[in-house]
Design brief:
Length: about 120
């Protein structure tokens, strides 16, 4: 991950152009291919998921992360380290941290789950 950080810092200006609306879509695709193994290994658990489900998770995480990187590159109000700390700490909280769903001892409910519990008038 350190190498990726070094590359982003060194080539930040180029990355901003390549990821812009006038950039190279192949660069974004290749960046996702490089980043996914890191996310998959350290942050996104694959246990219990088949290949199709993992592809869905990869699309979800990588698209959101790439969109955030693009926004950050367009208007960097924090250093790269601050950006990464913010993103990783918010999206992938440590187990038993205040942001972790498992820290409260309850499973997370979706809005659909909650509405199913609400009686109809």
């Amino acid at each position: 991950m350190g190498i990726l950080l070094d590359l982003m810092q060194t080539y930040e200006t180029y990355a901003a152009v390549l990821l812009s609306d006038h950039g190279d879509p192949h660069f974004a695709t290749r960046l996702k291919e490089v980043v996914w193994p890191l996310l998959n290994r350290y942050f996104v658990p694959s246990e219990g998921h088949d290949d199709y489900e993992m592809a869905l998770l990869a699309d979800f995480y990588l698209s959101g992360l790439l969109a955030s990187v693009i926004r950050w590159l367009q208007n960097p109000k924090m250093t790269l380290e601050e950006f990464l700390d913010f993103m990783v700490g918010t999206i992938f909280p440590k187990p038993d941290s205040p942001q972790s769903y498992s820290s409260c001892g309850k499973s997370a409910q979706t809005p659909a789950d909650k509405s199913a519990e609400t009686p109809m008038p």
